[in-house]
C-alpha cells in the first residue's frame, strides 16, 4: 500500500499537496496527521468528505510498502505514529518538498526551491493532464496562496503564478479561498476600518440589519474583503457592504458579507455583474456612483427575501434508518449495503434516539455481541436540528461539533438528513435558482 502524508501542524500547503499527491498516485491513501492548524480544522469541518483522508491510526503499518511525504522531508515532523517506519529497509520513499533541508533521503526525491509544495505537484498534474475539480482547484490555490502570501512574498517564483493561473482555469473559487485563509491585516487596512466605523450607516429591512460603508480610496488596497468582514462583526450587522470608490479610475468596488440565510450576497453580486457565494461576494462597477449602488443593493436585498433557502430544499430524504432493537449484525449489513459511515437509530414511533456509526463497532469485543441490539452500542443524544432552522445554522453546528451528518426533525420525528455534501451544494451556490 502507498500512503501519502505531510507534516504535523498541517497548513493549507500541506493539505493541498497531500490531496494533489493522491491524484498523482492512483490507489494511494492520503493520511492527515492528527495535529493540524486551526484554520485547516474549520475548512475541513465542511470539506472533509470531499477529500477522503484517513487518520494515522486507521493505517496498518504492516501493509505500507511505499511512503510519499509532501511539504516536509524530516521524520520528526511526521505524525509520531509513523516512527516505526523509519527502521524499514525495504520501504520506498518519495519526497515532494519546497524546503531544502530535511533528514529523509531517497533517490525519488523532488526537493526544489519553490513558493509552495503545491506548485510542484500541480505542475506534474498539469503535465499529465489529470483532471482537477473546482473544489480541488480551490484547495490547491489556497495552498499556493498561503505559502506565497497570495503570490506577494519574495519567495514566489514564476512557476507559482503559472500554477495559480492554471488552477483558476480549473475554476478555483477565489471567494472561498480568501474566506478560509488567514489574511494579512496591515496598517492600511486598519486605517480604512477605522474610517468605516466612524461613518457607520445602518439600515433595517424586514428585520435584518444592513451596514453600508462608503469610502473613497486611491490605488489598490489588499484584502478589502477581510476589512468588510471585520466591519460587519464590529458594527454587529447581519449583512455589510463596503463600497470603495476609486475616483481616479472612476469605478466602485463593492464587497458584501452576510451572516444570515435570507440575504444571499453571491446572488446579489451576480446580478450586479460580479460573483460570490451566499456568505460573501463582490462586484466591480465602472462609473458607478456609490449612492446609486447602495439604492440598487437595498432593492435587491428587499427582493431577495423570498429566496431564503429552507433546510427542506437541501436535505436528503428519505433517510435510511434502523430500529433500536435491530441486531448489530443486521446493522453492519445495512451499512455495507447503503455504503455510508453512519445511520440514525429510531424507536417504534420513528423518534430519533441515537446514531450508529462504523466507529461504534470498535466497542464490540466478543463475537456474540453482534447479536445484541444496536441501542447497546449507539451514541445517544444525537445532534439533530428542527426543519425550520436555517442552512447557515446547520453549517455552524457542523463546524462546532465536527460532525458530517445532521438528522432533521419535525416535531421530534425524523424527516431528512443533511450531509456535508448537501451543505457544499448550498455553500458553493450550486442550487438551481
Ligand atoms: Mn509549504
Task: Please outline what is shown here.
The protein has 433 residues and is an alpha/beta fold.
Please describe what this structure looks like.
- The chain is α/β, with parallel strands linked by helices and 433 residues long.
- The chain folds into three domains: 2-180, Alpha-Beta Complex (inorganic pyrophosphatase (n-terminal core)); 187-308, Diaminopimelate Epimerase, Chain A, domain 1 (Roll); 313-427, Roll (CBS-domain).
- 35% of the residues lie in helices and 22% in strands.
- The protein is built from 14 helices and 18 strands.
- The chain has helices spanning 12-24, 38-51, 117-127, 134-148, 158-169, 174-180, 187-198, 224-235, 265-270, 290-304, 311-314, 328-338, 391-401, 420-427, and strands at 2-6, 29-31, 66-70, 92-97, 108-111, 201-205, 208-217, 239-246, 251-258, 275-277, 280-286, 322-323, 342-346, 352-357, 379-380, 385-386, 405-410, 413-419.
- The strands form four sheets. It has a six-stranded mixed sheet with strand order 6-7-8-9-11-10, with helices on both faces.
- α13 links the parallel β16 and β17 (405-410).
- α3 crosses α5 (158-169), α4 crosses α6 (174-180) and α7 packs across α8.
- The longest helix is centred in the first third of the chain and has 15 residues, at 134-148.
- It is flat.
- The two termini are 45 Å apart.
- The model has no long low-confidence stretch (mean pLDDT 88).
- Bound molecules: manganese (II) ion (MN).
- Residues 13, 71, 98, 116-117, 147 line the site of manganese (II) ion.
